[in-house]
Amino acid sequence: MSASHWLKRSGFQARSEHLATEGPNGGLRYVDVWENEADCDRFVEERLHPVIAALLVDVFGDSPPPEPERHVLGVVHLWNP
User: Fold this and answer.
1) What's the pTM?
2) Domain ranges of the chain
3) What would the DSSP string read from start to end of 34-50?
4) Which helix (H) or strand (E) holds 5?
5) Whole-number Cα distances in Å, 42 to 30, 60, 65
6) Per-residue pLDDT of the chain (81 residues; tens, 9 = 90+)
7) Residue 22 · residue 32 · CB < 8 Å
């Protein structure tokens, strides 16, 4: 099942794009383009945070790192042939 199909079956509007790049100081930077911010927020809270929280406890114990900075971009155009 494609990620887009799974997201729609789970009640989320599909995200248009997912991109992972190297961050400027190492690590990873993720870019996700969603149909709307509300579905993105709900996905993060209901699906992503529970999984990530469990992993962070295994790595960092009771002192997890802060939430990554989030930047909302005003998309002018997305080309998806």
Assistant:
1) 0.62
2) 36-61
3) ES-HHHHHHHIIIIIHH
4) helix 3-9
5) 17, 25, 21
6) 555 555 566 666 666 677 889 988 888 888 888 878 888 888 888 888 888 888 888 888 888 888 878 888 777 877 766
7) no
C-alpha–C-alpha distance, residues 30 and 40, integer Å:
13
Q: What share of the chain is helix, strand, coil (3-state, %, to 5)?
A: 40, 20, 40
Interatomic CA distance for residues 24 and 52, integer angstroms: 22
Cα–Cα distance list, 31 to 13, 17, 54, 79 (Å): 16, 8, 22, 15
For the record, the structure tokens of 18 come out as 């997912």
Environment class of 12 (CB within 10 Å of its CB; exposed 0-12, middle 13-18, buried 19+): buried
- The sign of the torsion formed by the CA atoms of 39, 12, 20, 27 equals positive
